[in-house]
Amino acid sequence: MTAVGRRRAVVCGAGIAGLTTAWWLERAGWDVVVVERAPRPRSAGYMIDFFGPGFAVADRMGLVPALRERAASIAEVQYLDPAGRRRGSADYGAFRRAVDGRLLSLPRGDLADVLLEAARDRAETRWATTVDGVSEGTDHLDVHLSDGTTRTADLLVGADGLHSRVRELVVAPGARALRSLGYQTAAFVLDDDGLRRRVGARMVLVADPDRQVAVYPMRDGLLAAWLVHRTSGPLPDDPRAAVRSHYRGLGSGVGRVLSHLTAETDLYYDDVAQTEVEHWVRGRTVLVGDAACAPSLMAGQGASMAMAGAWALVGQVRRRPDDLATALRRYERTVRPFAEERQASGRRTARWLVPSSRWGIRARQGFLALAGLPGSGPLVRRAFGTEADTTLPG
């Protein structure tokens, strides 16, 4: 222990997993510093459906009212073909009813913003800073930061996402930790009053084999665009050019959406991938969220799993204040089976979510339309993995 009294933790990553971990650690009596390599909070990202165990954690933190204020009101999913013809629709309310209304559609960045505000008075946050190295002693860690300073801590939490630096430096150096699912995705926000009026309260999905574009309404009059396509190639040097190339000619207003993608646009672009590492723990360092077990957006619940995993981690640490090694091992044993089930679900459903044929597109649309019928709640819960308990054992 670094000193008599409060223990100290360094959390690498000011995203959903990191901020949730920081909040719960401080509540458990720890001093926490959060370091984040980005110079400021990230606004780029994609719309998420937030439900499941993470929703229960957010409720425990008192954050659900603030999240509801940021959530979009989506009544329907409308399917268009590239020619602009309506090919079907689904009642979005059916998905909310299947989880007793405990589902919110909001930008991932807005969830992170609410967490940042909640953690602001609980943890010091240092932007444009990351972990450069770690030296572990018998009863502490020296965490060497990119700004030239060193923090002495009892615990280092790697919550720095899919491309985790902490994972590479400490937990799994040299490991091939990412499993690509064969897709790349992009997301950005646009301001277009005319398009917003056409979209209304719907999510509009334009699908072609191996590529699709979805446009969602946001609460502030803006629109969120999410794009995904199949590819086996590496990440492009110029993501904007890649987006224009992959979705050129898709029709149904997609060209108008792409016209808003300029050099100034805050664009999210990444592989659709999962994290697979043999261990999440090494010594006093532990991984949480996407750094440990990214399910991919094909599986859904990545943000929910990140919050639930953070809650489970701190629960184990709180129960065993004098046996950190056992607490970290029990955290991994508790969360890993649930995470691996969600990852397996993501691999199974990837081809269904981004079909490779027009027949596959029609089959998906038919299933989602069926899900909107009365009495379909059990079907929806099985399909989207919401039958499990709403919280993880901590």
From TrEMBL:
One of its GO terms (molecular function) is FAD binding. Residues 9-314 form the FAD-binding domain. InterPro entries: FAD-bd, FAD/NAD-bd_sf, FAD_aromatic-hydroxylase. This is FAD-dependent oxidoreductase. It comes from Cellulomonas carbonis T26. The lineage of its organism: Bacteria, Bacillati, Actinomycetota, Actinomycetes, Micrococcales.
